[in-house]
TrEMBL record:
<dbReference type="InterPro" id="IPR050458">
    <property type="entry name" value="LolB"/>
</dbReference>
<protein>
    <submittedName>
        <fullName>4-aminobutyrate aminotransferase</fullName>
    </submittedName>
</protein>
<keyword id="KW-0032">Aminotransferase</keyword>
<dbReference type="Pfam" id="PF18934">
    <property type="entry name" value="DUF5682"/>
</dbReference>
<keyword id="KW-0808">Transferase</keyword>
<dbReference type="InterPro" id="IPR043737">
    <property type="entry name" value="DUF5682"/>
</dbReference>
<dbReference type="GO" id="GO:0008483">
    <property type="term" value="F:transaminase activity"/>
</dbReference>
């Protein structure tokens, strides 16, 4: 197929302007072309379902911003996409010049909800087609250029003397060849058919010349379809229509403006990526096009000087010193690299390579302070803010109304709020709903933590509330989950539950979150999800952690009002049974002693608390503990813990514990760690057992004692200092029949000892010895 030069005719009824999204050169030339031809209307690649609100883009927003389109389907899938706009985006400048010329502007792209799939790019102004192009790869290899970004800069961005006519010819030819070597996707064909129809409607409606601004990959196809419309429906489009009919129905959809940021734009990767380094191209727009438009002057390499000055400032702010000699070396290298690459000006890669070659003497990594400073400047710090008067989703209105009602509105100066959960449950539930929806500016910083449960004596929460630049955007983007706050929080929680594959503990925490948010209606669907996960989870520690959360919710949780909830009780039964099965098939476990002890404690506490109310299988529990405690190859810590649990339940006599002690004397410290952790109180009431432990230890030779000492010390840490004192007192009664002698010492002797101690400590301090505490 030959290139049709009629697409370059600026007197044609329809003029196609090919762009790369977020290209300053494209933004400059679209303004120049629109000013030159003054079309009857400008048609722009953008979501056609936003046309009813397109006037909102003419308000005084602080860029970057984005059109946010979202949809909820009948299979409970939620998908969203962004159409971001920077000051140098050609689509944005097309809108601005239309406003200045007082001509209509319309979006003509297929609404995103009509083509949304999990594989569809969520950044709608990405460069997917160009990045996948075989022609781009071949051209890069021919010219010795690395990748699309450098190729586009070389052909279109760097030369300030590039003219409109040259740009149009070069861009159309470039995009035509990209298209010629690659088959358009079904999505592309579907979109182009829709855009072609929109162009025909605009021709009939406006009568005059029409300027069409779209991604360059589509321009030639639209031109061809407009001149030579297909005589019969394309098979691929018929298939696409049938596929649409089979897709899940749209339950809810919406579209709105939302703030964006250069940081967010620069973080997009893969096929979602567009032009990189928005901060750099922002400087290009300001210095080359905006300033020249105002002053009709442009200084050669002004962009490089401004950007490099910002890099130096960023380096110094990070305490990275850079000398005048360094600056001279970098500038010389940058000029040489630009000349070597035939760049009309020093460009972004020239700056990076000059800094790397001139200043970095060690291994080059992306975390190097110099490169971090460069990327910080190239990324830019611009953050969008919406103008007043735009329409927002109902969820945003409700969030603001609820926050105002409870006096929790975020302010520029942050504040700490303490909530009494018994007196202010509604405030706590509101903040937890915002937390689940990831609304910026609301963070729990203290108070009771019902997930960790380290201190349940307090009944208050502490929250940090402060306005964040991301606050408004996070509210708008949360609208994908529903039109009311409660609905959105519920749907977000159910979405998180779907992601908990093979993670029963995570699902149990979501059940706790549902209770914290006051949405107990979620217990049934989460219950089914958690039940499935528990029955399929083969991780003993994960299942027993799940059991810990469920035990708390069922037995202790009067604060949230769901204690002894029937469905949670059934989950507790199932989890307990699953834990026993996994315990017996556990095998030898190394380096997870504390997790083992926590698991046995949870199982024991479950039986103690819920045996009667839930009719747990106590006999099986006892049998599993007995078999585990007698397994010769099992971890001694676990053996000690299981015999301790049997002892606590009065299912093993003290004599049995003594027998096991002697049988495992070569691993006594580890065995006692498990025993003391579970049966601490029983030990204190069994002086004879304590005496037998002492006798076993006394029989150790020096080497055996030193080997056992670390684990013995760990075992006795489960007793409080007062309990340790009582144990030692009990042992002394076995060692001697007479009471311990009373130490007699006079006040004068005490004074002499304290004076000597003071001199000793002074000498130690004088010589700087460490490890001695007064």
């Amino acid at each position: 197929m030959d290139f049709d030069t009629s697409i370059l005719n600026l007197d044609a009824k329809v003029i196609f302007f090919p762009v790369r999204h977020h290209s300053p050169a494209c933004a400059r030339f679209v303004r120049e072309l629109a000013t030159k031809i003054r079309p009857a209307a400008i048609l722009i690649e953008g979501p056609a379902d936003f046309n009813d609100q397109i006037s909102e883009l003419n308000l005084l927003h602080q860029l970057p911003i984005a059109v946010y389109s979202y949809a909820h389907f009948s299979d409970n899938t939620r998908l969203a996409a962004f159409y971001p706009y920077c000051v140098y985006s050609p689509e944005w400048q097309a809108l601005q010049i239309a406003k200045e010329l007082d001509i209509p502007a319309e979006f003509i792209d297929l609404p995103w909800s009509k083509m949304a799939t999990t594989k569809t790019a969520h950044h709608r102004y990405s460069d997917r087609e160009l990045r996948q192009s075989q022609y781009v790869s071949q051209l890069c290899e021919t010219l010795g250029i690395e990748g699309l970004d450098h190729l586009w800069d070389h052909l279109f961005e760097i030369d300030p003397a590039l003219t409109l006519e040259t740009y149009l010819d070069r861009a159309h030819q470039f995009c035509f060849h990209c298209r010629a070597l690659d088959e358009p996707t079904l999505e592309d064909q579907q979109r182009e058919a829709f855009m072609t129809e929109k162009i025909r409607q605009a021709i009939a409606r406006y009568g005059g010349q029409i300027l069409v601004v779209t991604g360059g990959f589509h321009s030639y196809a639209l031109h061809t379809q407009l001149l030579n419309p297909p005589t019969e429906p394309q098979a691929s489009l018929v298939f696409s229509y049938l596929e649409q009919c089979l897709k899940p129905a749209i339950v809810q959809q919406g579209i709105a403006l939302t703030p964006f940021s250069y940081d967010r734009l620069d973080s997009l990767t893969g096929y979602d990526a567009g032009m990189p380094n928005p901060g750099f191209y922002h400087q290009v727009w300001q210095h080359r096009y905006q300033s020249s438009a105002q002053e009709d002057t442009y200084t050669h390499n002004a962009i490089y000087r401004e950007v490099f000055a910002q890099i130096v400032t960023a380096l110094r702010s990070h305490q990275q010193l850079i000398s005048a000699a360094d600056l001279i070396a970098v500038e010389s290298a940058a000029h040489a690299l630009a000349a070597l690459r035939s760049h009309a000006e020093i460009w972004r890669q020239d700056i990076i390579d000059a800094i790397v070659t001139s200043l970095i003497k060690e291994e080059v990594t992306t975390t190097h302070p110099l490169l971090r400073a460069v990327h910080e400047v190239f990324r830019g710090s611009e953050r969008g803010k919406l103008a007043a008067g735009i329409s927002v989703p109902p969820l945003v209105q409700e969030i603001k109304q609820q926050l105002k009602q409870h006096d929790l509105e975020p302010q520029p100066i942050g504040r700490i709020v303490q909530l009494n959960l018994l007196e202010e449950p509604a405030c706590s539930q509101l903040l937890h709903q915002l937390r689940i929806l990831q609304i910026a500016g609301f963070n729990r910083t203290g108070g009771i933590d019902l997930a960790a449960r380290q201190d349940l004596s307090i009944q208050w929460e502490e929250w940090s509330i402060a306005w964040s630049p991301a606050y408004e955007g996070s509210c708008i983007e949360a609208a994908i989950y529903g039109s009311t706050l409660l609905e959105a929080a519920e749907m977000r929680l159910l979405e998180l539950a779907k992601q908990c594959e093979q993670q029963s503990e995570s699902a149990a925490l979501l059940l706790l979150d549902a209770c914290l948010m006051g949405v107990q209606t979620l217990i049934p669907p989460l219950y089914q999800q958690l039940l499935t996960l528990i029955q399929s989870d083969s991780d003993f520690f994960a299942v027993t952690s799940t059991l810990t959360h469920l035990l708390y919710l069922y037995s202790y949780d009067e604060l949230l009002g769901i204690a002894e909830h029937a469905e949670i009780g059934y989950l507790l039964q199932v989890t307990f049974t699953r834990s026993l099965w996994l315990l017996e098939s556990l095998g030898q476990v190394r380096d997870q002693d504390q997790q083992l002890l926590n698991a046995v404690k949870t199982l024991l506490e479950t039986v103690q608390r819920c045996d009667r109310t839930l009719n747990l299988d106590r006999e099986t529990f006892i049998a599993v503990l007995a078999r585990t405690s007698q397994e010769q190859t099992q971890n001694p810590v676990l053996r000690g813990a299981t015999i301790g649990a049997l002892w606590v339940l009065d299912e093993a006599p003290t004599e049995q514990v003594l027998t096991d002690l002697y049988a495992i004397s070569n691993h006594l410290g580890d065995f006692l760690t498990g025993l003391f952790s579970i049966a601490r109180e029983m030990i204190q009431r069994s002086p004879e057992l304590l005496n037998q432990i002492d006798r076993i230890i006394a029989q150790f030779d020096d080497e055996a004692f030193l080997e056992a000492l670390p684990s013995l010390r760990l075992a006795f840490t489960y007793f409080t200092p007062r309990e340790q004192h009582m144990l030692s007192h009990t042992l002394t009664q076995f060692w001697t029949k007479s009471p311990a002698p009373i130490l007699e010492i006079s006040p004068e002797q005490i004074a002499q000892i304290k004076a000597r101690e003071a001199r000793l400590l002074s000498t130690i301090a004088q010589y700087g010895l460490r490890g001695i505490r007064e």
